[in-house]
Design goal:
Length: about 120
């Protein structure tokens, strides 16, 4: 079959089929199969929102000044801003824990009284 007889959709399909498949990054942040991975957990809507905000770094207390993220000062250590990274360090958790065992992270947040930041 010559190329003049092919329609656009057939040419497009041929192009797509001939492309090499890309290998997704191996980083643990990309482990969720679909966007909104927190929405598939068996927990309340509030907890899903907390996990989503925590993963994205958009805490309820976040403000922007001159285009920079500004978090309030931590009331427990009074030395750092209350960023998601600081909260994970304070709880002794890693970002990988947030993706591998989000329900455990929620329990840590609940027990330490940090849920209201989200």
């Amino acid at each position: 079959m010559n190329s003049s007889a092919l329609t656009y959709s057939k040419l497009h399909s041929t192009y797509i089929n001939s492309k090499q498949t890309t290998v997704p990054p191996a980083h643990h942040w990309y482990e969720t199969k679909k966007p909104g991975g927190s929405l598939f957990l068996q927990c309340s809507r509030k907890e899903q929102t907390i996990l989503t905000r925590f993963r994205s770094g958009h805490l309820r207390t976040l403000t922007f000044r001159d285009g920079n993220k500004v978090f309030p000062t931590c009331v427990r250590c009074s030395a750092c801003q209350v960023s998601p990274e600081h909260i994970l360090d304070y709880l002794g958790l890693s970002k990988q824990d947030l993706y591998e065992d989000p329900l455990m992270v929620l329990d840590f947040l609940r027990v330490n009284g940090i849920m209201d930041l989200f």
